[in-house]
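Internal QA ticket QA-208
Title: Verify multi-chain structure generation after dependency bump
Assignee: T.L.

Test input:
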Amino acid sequence: MLLELKDVYVHYGKIEAIKGISLEVAEGEIVSLIGANGAGKTTTLKTISGLRPISAGRVLFDGKDISRTPGHVRVLRGIGQAPEGRGVFPGMTVQENLQMGAYARKGNTAGDLAEMYDLFPRLNERRAQMAGTLSGGEQQMLAIGRALMTKPKVLLLDEPSMGLAPKLVTQIFSIIEEINHRGTTVLLVEQNAQQALQLAHRAYVLETGHVVKSASASQLLDDPEVRAAYLGGDLGVDGAGEADATPNGAGRPTGGDAPAQ
Ligand code: ATP
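Actual output:
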């Protein structure tokens, strides 16, 4: 198993945000975490990347216990994260942002840059543009590209569809699929459960810090409880599309990277 959480607990002060979560991600999979606001999805990703300490349980990567391994070491071992809110460096160019992703490791970064520009032609056209002037969707692509430049074995994605127009959401999801085809395992946090389950092989449903269901994505798509709670019942009544409120995603300075740790 590439990644395993075993009975993990995480606290913010006295608040217990994660209450004994166990999950597994095998090499080559796309696994999704879905659930309502506050269910603990972002905290779970932060626990894996080392941004939040765990209070109990274990995190295993490639069979080794990394529960106490610092975040920057986890990046070198192969855990790459594109954070919620994008967090690109606004005053640096597209190319400089990508190069930052490869900063801490050795190897052929020129070849990796070429691969990123092949994956994201939009970024290729804009390599000399300041990241802060990119559209929301382009910033999302850049954040993913920068995480990929660390050469991760597993890529953690937090709400990559957030704030994007439907057309861009589709584009981002097809890029994630392509990243997976090229050999990177993906753990995807999404509120857009419909799209996430169409893309993922398997998924976990989180509620208030617990895993309440885990199954293949196709089983969850057919599950009446999941449909009622996360897929807008018989589709489109409410909830569908609330993540796509931005008309064209253009012109925002930089993704609000405000959420505190
Ligand atoms: P969303 O979809 O809204 O991002 P989520 O499923 O990612 O939600 P988390 O952000 O992981 O949920 O939050 C899980 C719980 O931990 C929530 O109850 C939240 O209020 C709490 N929490 C998160 N961050 C902090 C923090 N910095 N300080 C205190 N409590 C926090």
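Spot checks passed. Residues 12, 15, 17, 35, 37-43, 191, 260-261 surround adenosine-5'-triphosphate (CB under 6 Å).
Status: verified.
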